[in-house]
Amino acid sequence: MLSKSESRPYRLALQQSQMILSGNAGEELLKLTLRVDNPAGLRAMGLQLTYPADKAEPLTVQRTALTAKWVKLEGQSLWPGQMIIGGYDPQALPSGSAADLLEVLFKVKGRPVRLEEFSLSDFVDDLAQAVVLTSETGALSVGGAPKTFQLHQNYPNPFGAQARSNLTMIRFDLPGNEAVKVELAIYNLAGQLVRQLLAGVRTSGAYEVAWDGNDDSGKPVPTGTYLYRLAAGNHVASKSLVLVR
Predict the structure, then answer these.
(1) 3-class DSSP string for the chain
(2) At 45, which CATH number?
(3) Which of 25, 48, 64, 88 could bridge 122 with an S-S bond, Cβ 3.0-4.6 Å?
């Protein structure tokens, strides 16, 4: 993961929805735009977009002029109603004025959908200090530095081909003001190392790491229960997850 920005908090807002009539039997598409008011210095981002699964189905995450040259920018709906969006580029964004960061395209399922039914959370990397705004309420939520150490349950769980997701996401929170050595690894029930997911120094913040079900050599591991263990400074925690092929 890339280091988080030291600049002032990024202020984000989902713009009013745009309805599009596609050429597929009158199908309606909904476009949401994520706007950032001070993108200067931004080089990596990750967040969760919650949406009404009974009314909308995510299709794609689209780049804007601001992120057109990013190495990676994509989104994945790991389970109905929640979508993970992330991207990065080695070069930090130079623009300091408000601009559109990305667009998310949804298929509307025939029921009326309102902008208020969408929300943002779980900011990581350069957006760790993001403040989400709405036109109705102003500040909606703040993704500040965590106050406690925590290893969250992975999601989805179980995961794998039979669970319709080949990736699972592992989140953890690091408190404090100093950088610490962090190691995150997957083990089998015999205690043998399967995959080293993360090893390095990290500052305080909320982080998210993906596991694709492969070992350190890139080979798929079999169906079963595995343990993931996080060691960060003086803190150690572990949880179990299930992989189904």
Answers:
(1) CCCCCCCCCCEEEECCCEEEECCCCCCEEEEEEEEECCCCCCCEEEEEEECCCCCEEEEEEEECCCCCCCCEEEEEEEECCEEEEEEECCCCCCCCCCEEEEEEEEEECCCCCCHHHCEEEEEEHHHCCCEEEECCCEEEEECCCCCCCEECCCECCCEEHHHCECCEEEEEEECCCCCEEEEEEEECCCCCEEEEEEEEEECCEEEEEEECCECCCCCECCCEEEEEEEEECCEEEEEEEEECC
(2) 2.60.40.680
(3) 48
In single-letter form, the type of residue at position 166 comes to N
Residues in the chain: 245
Domain of 91 in residue numbering reads as 11-142
Please report, in tens digits, the pLDDT of each residue of the chain (245 residues total): 333 334 456 788 888 656 665 545 557 888 888 988 888 888 888 888 889 999 999 988 989 888 888 888 888 887 788 888 888 887 888 867 888 899 998 888 877 888 888 888 877 777 766 777 654 433 334 445 678 899 988 888 888 877 667 888 888 888 887 889 999 999 999 899 999 988 888 888 777 788 889 999 999 999 999 999 999 999 999 999 999 98
The last residue of a domain, from among 75, 110, 142: 142
Structure tokens at 148: 């406690």
Total domain count for the chain? 2
